[in-house]
Specification:
Order of helices and strands: HHEEHHHHHHEHEHEEEH
CATH topology of the largest domain: Rossmann fold
Shape: elongated
CATH superfamily of the largest domain: Cobalamin-binding domain
Largest sheet: 5 strands, parallel
Structural class: alpha/beta
Bound molecules: cobalamin
Strand content: 5-15%
Helix content: 40-55%
Strand order of the largest sheet: 4-3-5-6-7
Number of strands: 7
Length: 321
Protein backbone atom coordinates (compact mmCIF):
# COMPACT_ATOMS: atom_id res chain seq x y z
CA UNK A 1 0.00 0.00 0.00
CA UNK A 2 1.52 3.31 -1.05
CA UNK A 3 1.67 5.86 1.74
CA UNK A 4 3.80 8.54 0.04
CA UNK A 5 2.84 12.21 0.33
CA UNK A 6 -0.21 13.26 -1.63
CA UNK A 7 -1.56 16.78 -1.88
CA UNK A 8 -4.74 17.30 0.13
CA UNK A 9 -7.72 19.14 -1.42
CA UNK A 10 -8.46 18.18 -5.05
CA UNK A 11 -8.51 14.45 -5.76
CA UNK A 12 -5.78 13.46 -8.21
CA UNK A 13 -6.68 10.78 -10.80
CA UNK A 14 -6.95 7.89 -10.37
CA UNK A 15 -8.13 8.47 -6.78
CA UNK A 16 -6.68 8.45 -3.29
CA UNK A 17 -4.74 5.83 -1.40
CA UNK A 18 -5.98 4.53 1.93
CA UNK A 19 -3.30 6.60 3.69
CA UNK A 20 -4.41 9.83 2.00
CA UNK A 21 -8.10 9.22 2.77
CA UNK A 22 -7.24 8.39 6.38
CA UNK A 23 -5.38 11.72 6.71
CA UNK A 24 -8.26 13.58 5.12
CA UNK A 25 -10.80 12.07 7.51
CA UNK A 26 -8.55 12.17 10.57
CA UNK A 27 -8.81 8.40 11.20
CA UNK A 28 -6.22 5.61 11.17
CA UNK A 29 -5.69 3.63 7.92
CA UNK A 30 -6.53 0.47 9.89
CA UNK A 31 -9.94 2.00 10.72
CA UNK A 32 -10.67 2.50 7.02
CA UNK A 33 -9.75 -1.11 6.29
CA UNK A 34 -12.14 -2.24 9.03
CA UNK A 35 -14.94 -0.09 7.58
CA UNK A 36 -14.23 -1.69 4.19
CA UNK A 37 -14.31 -5.22 5.60
CA UNK A 38 -17.40 -4.78 7.78
CA UNK A 39 -19.55 -2.36 5.82
CA UNK A 40 -18.21 -2.53 2.27
CA UNK A 41 -17.16 1.13 2.34
CA UNK A 42 -13.93 0.46 0.47
CA UNK A 43 -12.22 1.91 -2.58
CA UNK A 44 -14.01 1.20 -5.86
CA UNK A 45 -11.26 2.16 -8.33
CA UNK A 46 -8.42 0.03 -9.65
CA UNK A 47 -5.16 1.50 -10.96
CA UNK A 48 -3.15 -0.76 -13.28
CA UNK A 49 -0.48 -2.69 -11.34
CA UNK A 50 -1.29 -0.81 -8.20
CA UNK A 51 -3.48 -0.97 -5.13
CA UNK A 52 -7.15 -0.02 -5.13
CA UNK A 53 -7.91 3.72 -4.95
CA UNK A 54 -10.77 5.71 -3.44
CA UNK A 55 -12.81 7.66 -6.02
CA UNK A 56 -14.31 11.12 -5.22
CA UNK A 57 -17.68 9.39 -4.62
CA UNK A 58 -16.08 6.88 -2.22
CA UNK A 59 -14.48 9.76 -0.28
CA UNK A 60 -17.70 11.79 -0.20
CA UNK A 61 -19.53 8.74 1.22
CA UNK A 62 -16.88 8.28 3.91
CA UNK A 63 -17.01 11.96 4.80
CA UNK A 64 -20.78 11.70 5.31
CA UNK A 65 -20.30 8.66 7.54
CA UNK A 66 -17.70 10.54 9.58
CA UNK A 67 -19.95 13.61 9.96
CA UNK A 68 -22.83 11.44 11.19
CA UNK A 69 -20.54 9.67 13.67
CA UNK A 70 -19.36 13.02 15.01
CA UNK A 71 -23.00 13.95 15.46
CA UNK A 72 -23.46 10.85 17.63
CA UNK A 73 -24.77 8.28 15.12
CA UNK A 74 -23.34 4.76 15.72
CA UNK A 75 -21.04 3.57 12.90
CA UNK A 76 -23.25 0.70 11.71
CA UNK A 77 -26.26 3.03 11.46
CA UNK A 78 -24.24 5.77 9.71
CA UNK A 79 -22.86 3.26 7.20
CA UNK A 80 -26.34 1.89 6.48
CA UNK A 81 -27.82 5.38 6.11
CA UNK A 82 -25.11 6.55 3.71
CA UNK A 83 -25.20 3.30 1.69
CA UNK A 84 -28.92 3.84 1.01
CA UNK A 85 -28.53 7.54 0.12
CA UNK A 86 -28.71 8.65 -3.50
CA UNK A 87 -25.25 8.88 -5.12
CA UNK A 88 -24.32 12.53 -5.63
CA UNK A 89 -27.91 13.62 -4.92
CA UNK A 90 -30.12 14.26 -1.93
CA UNK A 91 -28.95 12.49 1.19
CA UNK A 92 -32.05 11.19 2.98
CA UNK A 93 -30.21 11.28 6.29
CA UNK A 94 -29.10 14.90 6.12
CA UNK A 95 -32.19 15.95 4.22
CA UNK A 96 -34.28 14.66 7.13
CA UNK A 97 -33.23 18.04 8.54
CA UNK A 98 -32.01 16.88 11.90
CA UNK A 99 -29.22 14.43 12.50
CA UNK A 100 -30.38 14.28 16.11
CA UNK A 101 -33.64 12.64 15.07
CA UNK A 102 -31.96 9.42 13.97
CA UNK A 103 -29.56 9.00 16.85
CA UNK A 104 -30.03 6.91 19.92
CA UNK A 105 -26.49 7.36 21.23
CA UNK A 106 -25.86 6.39 24.84
CA UNK A 107 -25.28 9.30 27.24
CA UNK A 108 -21.64 10.18 27.84
CA UNK A 109 -20.32 9.04 31.19
CA UNK A 110 -19.52 11.78 33.73
CA UNK A 111 -16.23 12.15 35.55
CA UNK A 112 -12.58 12.10 34.48
CA UNK A 113 -10.96 10.21 31.61
CA UNK A 114 -11.88 10.70 27.98
CA UNK A 115 -15.47 11.80 28.52
CA UNK A 116 -17.33 15.03 29.16
CA UNK A 117 -20.57 15.01 31.15
CA UNK A 118 -23.36 16.98 29.47
CA UNK A 119 -26.48 16.39 31.54
CA UNK A 120 -29.51 16.43 29.26
CA UNK A 121 -27.26 17.08 26.24
CA UNK A 122 -28.59 16.29 22.77
CA UNK A 123 -26.78 13.69 20.62
CA UNK A 124 -25.43 16.65 18.64
CA UNK A 125 -23.95 18.12 21.83
CA UNK A 126 -22.40 14.76 22.66
CA UNK A 127 -21.01 14.55 19.12
CA UNK A 128 -19.45 17.99 19.52
CA UNK A 129 -17.92 17.02 22.87
CA UNK A 130 -16.58 13.83 21.32
CA UNK A 131 -15.01 15.73 18.42
CA UNK A 132 -13.45 18.23 20.86
CA UNK A 133 -12.05 15.40 23.02
CA UNK A 134 -10.52 13.90 19.86
CA UNK A 135 -8.97 17.35 19.19
CA UNK A 136 -10.82 17.27 15.86
CA UNK A 137 -11.29 20.97 15.19
CA UNK A 138 -12.61 20.39 11.68
CA UNK A 139 -15.26 17.99 13.03
CA UNK A 140 -16.25 20.51 15.73
CA UNK A 141 -16.61 23.22 13.13
CA UNK A 142 -18.76 21.05 10.88
CA UNK A 143 -21.19 20.28 13.70
CA UNK A 144 -21.35 23.95 14.69
CA UNK A 145 -21.85 25.02 11.05
CA UNK A 146 -24.60 22.46 10.40
CA UNK A 147 -26.45 23.44 13.56
CA UNK A 148 -26.14 27.15 12.76
CA UNK A 149 -27.54 26.52 9.28
CA UNK A 150 -30.52 24.61 10.66
CA UNK A 151 -31.25 26.47 13.88
CA UNK A 152 -29.66 29.93 13.81
CA UNK A 153 -27.31 31.60 16.27
CA UNK A 154 -29.38 31.82 19.46
CA UNK A 155 -30.53 28.18 19.46
CA UNK A 156 -27.05 26.92 18.58
CA UNK A 157 -25.49 28.96 21.37
CA UNK A 158 -28.03 28.15 24.07
CA UNK A 159 -28.65 24.45 23.29
CA UNK A 160 -25.43 23.21 21.71
CA UNK A 161 -22.48 25.40 22.65
CA UNK A 162 -23.23 26.51 26.22
CA UNK A 163 -23.93 22.93 27.48
CA UNK A 164 -20.78 21.58 25.84
CA UNK A 165 -18.60 24.45 27.11
CA UNK A 166 -19.98 24.11 30.61
CA UNK A 167 -19.20 20.35 30.45
CA UNK A 168 -15.68 20.94 29.15
CA UNK A 169 -15.09 23.64 31.80
CA UNK A 170 -16.27 21.30 34.56
CA UNK A 171 -14.02 18.53 33.35
CA UNK A 172 -11.08 20.94 33.55
CA UNK A 173 -12.12 22.10 37.04
CA UNK A 174 -12.42 18.47 38.30
CA UNK A 175 -9.34 16.97 36.70
CA UNK A 176 -7.14 19.92 35.74
CA UNK A 177 -7.02 18.26 32.29
CA UNK A 178 -8.39 19.29 28.95
CA UNK A 179 -7.06 22.77 28.25
CA UNK A 180 -6.08 21.46 24.80
CA UNK A 181 -9.71 20.33 24.30
CA UNK A 182 -10.95 23.76 25.42
CA UNK A 183 -8.61 25.46 22.96
CA UNK A 184 -9.64 23.29 19.98
CA UNK A 185 -13.33 23.81 20.75
CA UNK A 186 -12.90 27.57 21.28
CA UNK A 187 -10.96 28.00 18.02
CA UNK A 188 -13.60 26.06 16.06
CA UNK A 189 -16.48 28.09 17.54
CA UNK A 190 -14.75 31.46 17.12
CA UNK A 191 -13.69 30.73 13.52
CA UNK A 192 -17.14 29.59 12.45
CA UNK A 193 -18.85 32.64 13.99
CA UNK A 194 -16.19 35.02 12.71
CA UNK A 195 -16.48 33.73 9.14
CA UNK A 196 -20.25 34.20 9.24
CA UNK A 197 -19.87 37.73 10.60
CA UNK A 198 -17.46 38.71 7.83
CA UNK A 199 -19.77 37.22 5.14
CA UNK A 200 -22.95 38.97 6.38
CA UNK A 201 -24.05 42.24 4.77
CA UNK A 202 -24.21 44.98 7.43
CA UNK A 203 -26.70 47.76 6.70
CA UNK A 204 -27.67 49.28 10.07
CA UNK A 205 -27.55 53.11 10.32
CA UNK A 206 -25.07 52.94 13.24
CA UNK A 207 -22.53 50.41 14.45
CA UNK A 208 -21.82 48.74 17.78
CA UNK A 209 -18.53 47.87 19.52
CA UNK A 210 -17.94 44.55 21.28
CA UNK A 211 -14.97 43.84 23.54
CA UNK A 212 -13.80 41.94 26.59
CA UNK A 213 -12.79 43.76 29.77
CA UNK A 214 -9.07 44.41 30.41
CA UNK A 215 -7.21 41.10 31.08
CA UNK A 216 -10.28 39.07 30.08
CA UNK A 217 -9.43 36.31 27.59
CA UNK A 218 -12.88 34.75 27.32
CA UNK A 219 -14.52 36.06 24.14
CA UNK A 220 -16.78 33.32 22.74
CA UNK A 221 -20.00 34.96 23.96
CA UNK A 222 -18.89 38.09 22.06
CA UNK A 223 -18.54 36.05 18.86
CA UNK A 224 -22.00 34.53 19.39
CA UNK A 225 -23.34 38.04 19.89
CA UNK A 226 -21.54 39.35 16.78
CA UNK A 227 -23.03 36.50 14.72
CA UNK A 228 -26.50 37.10 16.18
CA UNK A 229 -26.22 40.80 15.30
CA UNK A 230 -24.95 39.93 11.83
CA UNK A 231 -28.13 37.87 11.31
CA UNK A 232 -29.98 41.17 11.96
CA UNK A 233 -27.63 43.07 9.57
CA UNK A 234 -26.15 45.17 12.38
CA UNK A 235 -22.70 46.59 11.68
CA UNK A 236 -20.37 45.18 14.36
CA UNK A 237 -16.80 46.14 15.27
CA UNK A 238 -15.20 43.34 17.23
CA UNK A 239 -12.35 44.57 19.45
CA UNK A 240 -11.75 41.16 21.04
CA UNK A 241 -10.00 40.02 24.20
CA UNK A 242 -8.42 42.02 27.05
CA UNK A 243 -9.04 45.52 25.69
CA UNK A 244 -7.39 48.26 27.80
CA UNK A 245 -9.80 50.98 28.92
CA UNK A 246 -7.90 53.76 27.11
CA UNK A 247 -8.07 51.76 23.85
CA UNK A 248 -11.83 51.40 24.29
CA UNK A 249 -12.10 55.14 25.05
CA UNK A 250 -10.21 55.99 21.88
CA UNK A 251 -12.36 53.60 19.78
CA UNK A 252 -15.55 55.14 21.19
CA UNK A 253 -14.29 58.63 20.27
CA UNK A 254 -13.32 57.60 16.72
CA UNK A 255 -16.32 55.43 15.81
CA UNK A 256 -19.16 57.11 17.69
CA UNK A 257 -20.95 53.76 18.19
CA UNK A 258 -24.64 53.47 19.06
CA UNK A 259 -23.84 50.76 21.60
CA UNK A 260 -20.91 49.16 23.38
CA UNK A 261 -21.00 45.76 25.07
CA UNK A 262 -18.19 44.69 27.41
CA UNK A 263 -17.84 41.05 28.49
CA UNK A 264 -16.39 39.91 31.84
CA UNK A 265 -16.21 36.18 32.53
CA UNK A 266 -14.06 36.21 35.67
CA UNK A 267 -14.53 38.26 38.85
CA UNK A 268 -10.89 39.39 38.46
CA UNK A 269 -11.93 41.40 35.40
CA UNK A 270 -15.35 42.53 36.61
CA UNK A 271 -14.85 45.92 38.27
CA UNK A 272 -17.46 48.13 36.55
CA UNK A 273 -16.07 51.40 37.90
CA UNK A 274 -13.18 51.32 35.41
CA UNK A 275 -15.62 52.46 32.74
CA UNK A 276 -16.19 55.76 34.50
CA UNK A 277 -13.16 56.77 32.40
CA UNK A 278 -15.04 56.43 29.11
CA UNK A 279 -15.27 59.73 27.21
CA UNK A 280 -18.45 61.81 26.97
CA UNK A 281 -19.57 61.61 23.35
CA UNK A 282 -22.74 62.81 21.67
CA UNK A 283 -24.97 61.03 20.94
CA UNK A 284 -24.21 58.98 24.02
CA UNK A 285 -23.75 55.25 23.24
CA UNK A 286 -25.64 52.68 25.22
CA UNK A 287 -23.10 50.87 27.43
CA UNK A 288 -23.98 47.25 28.25
CA UNK A 289 -22.17 44.91 30.64
CA UNK A 290 -22.54 41.17 30.15
CA UNK A 291 -21.09 38.01 31.64
CA UNK A 292 -20.90 36.41 35.08
CA UNK A 293 -17.71 38.27 36.12
CA UNK A 294 -19.20 41.72 36.77
CA UNK A 295 -19.31 42.65 40.45
CA UNK A 296 -22.78 43.09 41.91
CA UNK A 297 -23.97 46.56 42.79
CA UNK A 298 -24.03 49.90 41.01
CA UNK A 299 -22.64 49.93 37.48
CA UNK A 300 -23.02 53.65 36.88
CA UNK A 301 -24.13 54.55 33.39
CA UNK A 302 -23.89 50.97 32.20
CA UNK A 303 -26.81 48.54 32.03
CA UNK A 304 -26.51 44.80 32.69
CA UNK A 305 -27.81 42.24 30.20
CA UNK A 306 -28.38 38.63 31.19
CA UNK A 307 -28.52 36.57 28.03
CA UNK A 308 -27.74 36.48 24.35
CA UNK A 309 -31.26 37.32 23.16
CA UNK A 310 -31.50 40.35 25.44
CA UNK A 311 -28.08 41.59 24.26
CA UNK A 312 -28.95 41.17 20.56
CA UNK A 313 -32.29 42.94 21.01
CA UNK A 314 -30.80 45.89 22.92
CA UNK A 315 -27.90 46.44 20.51
CA UNK A 316 -29.97 45.97 17.34
CA UNK A 317 -32.41 48.57 18.64
CA UNK A 318 -29.59 50.97 19.55
CA UNK A 319 -28.09 50.57 16.05
CA UNK A 320 -31.44 51.27 14.41
CA UNK A 321 -31.66 47.81 12.76
C1 LIG B 1 -13.51 28.43 26.63
C2 LIG B 1 -12.97 28.71 28.02
C3 LIG B 1 -11.68 29.24 28.13
C4 LIG B 1 -10.84 29.61 26.91
C5 LIG B 1 -11.39 30.95 26.32
C6 LIG B 1 -11.18 31.01 24.82
C7 LIG B 1 -11.94 32.11 24.17
N1 LIG B 1 -11.50 32.43 22.98
O1 LIG B 1 -12.89 32.67 24.68
C8 LIG B 1 -9.41 29.74 27.52
C9 LIG B 1 -8.70 28.42 27.35
C10 LIG B 1 -8.55 30.86 26.97
C11 LIG B 1 -9.74 29.92 29.00
C12 LIG B 1 -8.85 30.44 29.91
C13 LIG B 1 -9.09 30.50 31.29
N2 LIG B 1 -10.17 30.02 31.95
CO1 LIG B 1 -11.76 29.44 31.05
N3 LIG B 1 -13.32 28.62 30.37
C14 LIG B 1 -13.75 28.44 29.16
C15 LIG B 1 -15.16 27.81 29.19
C16 LIG B 1 -15.04 26.33 28.83
C17 LIG B 1 -16.19 28.51 28.29
C18 LIG B 1 -16.19 30.03 28.46
C19 LIG B 1 -17.41 30.68 27.86
O2 LIG B 1 -17.38 31.07 26.71
N4 LIG B 1 -18.52 30.76 28.64
C20 LIG B 1 -19.77 31.33 28.21
C21 LIG B 1 -20.96 30.50 28.78
C22 LIG B 1 -20.82 29.08 28.27
O3 LIG B 1 -20.93 30.42 30.19
P1 LIG B 1 -21.48 31.58 31.20
O4 LIG B 1 -20.86 32.87 30.91
O5 LIG B 1 -21.37 31.04 32.57
O6 LIG B 1 -23.04 31.69 30.77
C23 LIG B 1 -24.04 32.25 31.55
C24 LIG B 1 -24.27 33.73 31.41
O7 LIG B 1 -23.10 34.45 31.15
C25 LIG B 1 -25.30 33.87 30.35
N5 LIG B 1 -24.78 34.04 29.01
C26 LIG B 1 -24.30 33.02 28.27
N6 LIG B 1 -23.94 33.48 27.08
C27 LIG B 1 -24.20 34.79 27.04
C28 LIG B 1 -24.01 35.70 25.99
C29 LIG B 1 -24.36 37.05 26.18
C30 LIG B 1 -24.12 38.02 25.09
C31 LIG B 1 -24.92 37.41 27.42
C32 LIG B 1 -25.31 38.80 27.60
C33 LIG B 1 -25.10 36.48 28.44
C34 LIG B 1 -24.75 35.17 28.24
O8 LIG B 1 -26.03 32.70 30.38
C35 LIG B 1 -25.27 31.61 30.94
C36 LIG B 1 -26.11 30.81 31.87
O9 LIG B 1 -26.32 31.51 33.06
C37 LIG B 1 -15.58 28.08 30.68
C38 LIG B 1 -16.61 27.13 31.24
C39 LIG B 1 -17.92 27.90 31.55
N7 LIG B 1 -18.75 27.32 32.34
O10 LIG B 1 -18.15 28.98 31.10
C40 LIG B 1 -14.20 28.12 31.41
C41 LIG B 1 -14.11 28.99 32.65
C42 LIG B 1 -14.86 30.28 32.48
N8 LIG B 1 -12.67 29.27 32.71
C43 LIG B 1 -12.21 29.30 33.92
C44 LIG B 1 -10.87 29.60 34.27
C45 LIG B 1 -10.50 29.48 35.76
C46 LIG B 1 -9.94 29.99 33.30
C47 LIG B 1 -8.47 30.36 33.55
C48 LIG B 1 -8.19 31.24 34.76
C49 LIG B 1 -7.71 29.04 33.62
C50 LIG B 1 -6.22 29.13 33.79
N9 LIG B 1 -5.80 28.67 34.93
O11 LIG B 1 -5.53 29.55 32.89
C51 LIG B 1 -8.09 31.08 32.24
C52 LIG B 1 -8.29 32.60 32.41
C53 LIG B 1 -8.02 33.44 31.22
C54 LIG B 1 -8.31 34.89 31.43
N10 LIG B 1 -7.42 35.65 32.03
O12 LIG B 1 -9.35 35.36 31.05
C55 LIG B 1 -13.29 28.99 34.97
C56 LIG B 1 -13.75 30.24 35.72
C57 LIG B 1 -14.05 29.96 37.16
C58 LIG B 1 -14.46 31.23 37.85
N11 LIG B 1 -15.75 31.50 37.89
O13 LIG B 1 -13.64 31.95 38.28
C59 LIG B 1 -14.40 28.31 34.07
C60 LIG B 1 -15.84 28.54 34.55
C61 LIG B 1 -14.09 26.80 34.03
C62 LIG B 1 -14.44 26.11 35.34
N12 LIG B 1 -15.48 25.32 35.37
O14 LIG B 1 -13.78 26.28 36.33
N13 LIG B 1 -10.99 29.52 29.29
Amino acid sequence: MSSGPEPSGALPAPGLTVAAVARRLGVAPATLRTWDRRYGMGPSQHAAGSHRRYSPDDVARLERVRRLMLAGVPLAEAARAVATSLPGGVDPVEDAGDVEAITGAAPMRPGGGGVVAIPGGTPNARGLARAALALDGRGCREIVAQTLDRRGVVWTWDHLLVPVMVGVGQKWAQSNKGIDVEHVLSEAIASEFSERVSRAPASSPASVLLCAAPNELHVLPLWALAAGLAERHVSVRMLGARLPVDALASAVRRVGPAGVLIWSQLPETGDPTIFDALPEVRPEPQILLAGPGWWPGDSGKARRVEDLTEAITALARAAGA
